[in-house]
Specification:
The chain is of the alpha+beta class and about 375 residues long. It has four helices and 14 strands. About 15% of the residues lie in helices and about 35% in strands.
């Protein structure tokens, strides 16, 4: 009984939490219900309380009044019989329900009271059914009862509900019954509702670019995500160099300094610079040797520092061999250096040109081995755009 009592209390207490906002004006229709219960008999009956089950069929005339036929069944052990056994207890009854639809301001969850009439059917099942042998049997004749009950009912939807209640059954002995159950309506039911007014959610001012300045005040719509903006929604340029902070690779540039598109200071190179890379090739060769790399790096560093400078890579030869052959060899030497700058230092090919001058521009005497070695060279001629 304790478990059933706890279940009934919890179910009843939770109904108000399920209640909807709509107000039921009227409904009617046939319904059925099923419940579990605990029948607690008067102590004079000599039987122990126990759980059972029940069912019913009814008609709801409107939101307030209903008529219901019901049946319940439970089995009980005997407490004062000489020879033991048990009793099967059945009840059949008819009840009038009144639903208090004005309670707590909504009709989805409401209390009810009921008044009814019924009959006990007590069936002794034991070794002796003769009252002369088992005197306690005289208390188990069928008898009529009057029922008064109260409870609470909650509608989950138009057609389904839950119910919990407590009944007083008054006969020669007075009994009580707790129950919890569920039910549903058959076919179409009439349930008019008037929806409670729903407050329209407040519409937040629109900020399309998410910069924290609403569209109505944003003078620079479409600001990139994460860009710092001023009160007008425009990107900030903290150092005043004309490049917004979110694009500025060199923040805090001094005032008046000329900068490039990344906000970095532009350093003007000399109009024309010739770098002797000291690249001395082997005879009849144009391959880049490891010891040449540091010299080529000087040109790459200069070009990286001055974006307004282009380079002409010049190839030269000594006088050994024909002039036409040496012309082609000098061009290959110039191209190998230019390719190395592109492929290994990331210099744009558009900033480089490779020119061969053959044996026409010696810087030393081709009559000696030392002079010829110096003439097999490559140079970089750098000019501003």
């Amino acid at each position: 009984m304790k478990k059933l009592l706890v279940s009934a209390c919890l179910l009843s207490a939770s109904f108000a939490g399920f209640a909807g906002e709509g107000e039921i004006k009227d409904r009617d229709g046939f319904y059925g219900q099923f419940n579990i219960n605990n029948f607690d008999p008067d102590s004079e009956r000599g039987i122990v309380d126990n759980d059972g089950w029940g069912t019913g069929f009814g008609y709801l005339f409107n939101s307030n009044w209903a008529l219901e036929l019901n049946y319940s069944e439970s089995n009980h052990t005997l407490s004062n019989f000489v020879f033991g056994g048990e009793v099967e207890l059945d009840t059949v009854g008819i009840d009038v329900f009144y639903n208090d639809t004005n309670w707590i301001g909504n009709l989805t969850t409401h209390p009810f009271i009921k008044l009814g009439y019924g009959e006990y059917n007590l069936d002794y099942q034991g070794p002796f059914a003769d009252p002369a042998i088992e005197p306690a049997l005289v208390a188990f004749e069928n008898e009529d009862f009057t029922r008064v009950g109260l409870g609470v009912q909650h509608y989950f939807s138009d057609n389904f509900f839950a119910r919990a209640g407590y009944d007083f059954l008054m006969a020669e002995q007075d009994d009580t019954m707790w129950y919890v159950g569920v039910g549903g309506f058959f076919g179409n039911t009439h349930r008019d509702s008037v929806a409670a007014p729903v407050k329209a959610p407040a519409t937040a001012p629109k900020d399309s670019d998410g910069d924290g300045v609403i569209d109505a005040n944003d003078r620079c719509p479409g600001t990139p995500a994460g860009a710092r903006v001023d009160a007008n929604g425009c990107p900030v340029d903290s150092d005043g160099d004309g490049v917004y902070d979110y694009q500025d690779a060199c923040p805090n540039t001094a005032a008046g300094v000329k900068v490039d598109a990344k906000g970095c200071e532009v350093v003007e190179a000399a109009e024309k610079v010739v770098i002797d890379m000291r690249l001395n090739f082997d005879t009849n060769a144009y391959a880049i040797k490891p010891e040449m790399v540091s010299e080529i790096a000087k040109v790459a560093e200069f070009l990286g520092q001055f974006s307004n400078v282009n380079a002409e890579i010049q190839g030269h030869t000594d006088s050994v061999g024909s002039a036409s052959y040496n012309q082609g060899l000098s061009e290959r030497r110039a191209k190998s250096v230019a390719d190395y700058l592109v492929n290994n230092f990331g210099i744009a090919a558009s900033r480089l040109s490779a020119v061969g001058y053959g044996e026409a521009r010696p810087i030393a005497d081709n009559g000696t081995a030392e002079g010829r070695a110096l003439n097999r060279r490559a140079e970089a001629n750098l000019e501003s755009k």
